[in-house]
């Protein structure tokens, strides 16, 4: 049995049949809609409500550790989390992708820009996972994964895929809530 294609298919099935097609036509109003008071989002540096995380004019609302309960987040925030925290950081650490982290990322001001970032991050991740082959799936993750350094790469791949699927579903739910809130 070849495990690499099965792991790639785990993400690609959800990506191509559900998540990505349902993001087509995402508007800037939806992208930045704050579904509740005090919502975390991506906003201009001048309007930052937390430490301004980011390397450009747009920054991510974020506190480490997060308050309890954590604030509700926008589509923009969740997309940024998938782009940077799930895919970008790991692609940089494990597949030679461009350096990426929450402190220096240039966050998207518009839905179209965010979708371009999401597509690029997804494509780099999937290419990296495919390139692992079967042998790469059993090698240890290494120091980039801290206390999980000794875990096989397959464990990381499964974790990242769960994260993208989970947060993707949240993004789509927020999109549905935006639609019904507008009548």
Task: Explain what this protein looks like in three dimensions.
With 183 residues, this protein is mainly alpha-helical. The protein has one domain: Four Helix Bundle (Hemerythrin (Met), subunit A) (Up-down Bundle), CATH 1.20.120. Helices cover 57% and strands 3% of the residues. It has 5 helices and 2 strands; from the N terminus they run ααββααα. The N and C termini lie far apart (50 Å). The mean pLDDT is 97.
Rg, rounded, reads 17 Å
Order of helices and strands: HHEEHHH
CATH fold field value: Four Helix Bundle (Hemerythrin (Met), subunit A)
- Counting DSSP E segments of at least 2 residues, the number of strands comes to 2
Number of distinct helices: 5
- What can be said about the biggest beta sheet? 2 strands, antiparallel
What is the typical, i.e. mean, pLDDT? 97
Structural class: mainly alpha
Low-confidence stretches: none
Q: Can you give the helix content as a percent range?
A: 55-70%
Give the CATH level 1 class: Mainly Alpha
Strand content: under 5%
Overall geometric form: globular
Strand order, sheet with most strands: 1-2
Our measurement of the CA-to-CA distance between the termini, rounded to an integer number of angstroms, reads: 50 Å
Number of domains: 1
